[in-house]
Amino acid sequence: MPGTRAVGAVTGPGGGKQPLCPSRLILEHVTSRWGVLVLTALLERSYRFSELRREVGGVSEKMLAQTLQTLERDGFVHRDAKPVIPPRVDYSLTPLGSEAAERVSALARWTERQVDAVQAARGAYDEARP
Known about the structure:
Blueprint: H1 22-31, H2 33-44, E1 47-48, H3 49-56, H4 61-73, E2 77-82, E3 88-93, H5 95-113, H6 115-128
Antiparallel strand pairs: 1-3, 2-3
């Protein structure tokens, strides 16, 4: 219906629909491939960098460092650097990060449960195409 808003639609100035809306960039950070995996891993506990890299799997050091820095800048991740030798840095979620991680984790779990349905839909789509 014209003029109605879908339940759960992004609200606020521009409703998240403007190309330069700040919420778009935040959403991109939280839902990026590595952002989702880092946030869901940190839901379990805090990790050192190398532990987190093993836990996430497949991420390069550079990408993990960039992802953690972005999530830290956005207020989702806390970086705790201890002044010891060798240096020790632990990463954990902030309260804001915990809330975001719970939400993306729910989406990730839903996605895992729907793999068969999506693959069946893809197969049907591909068979119907000339």
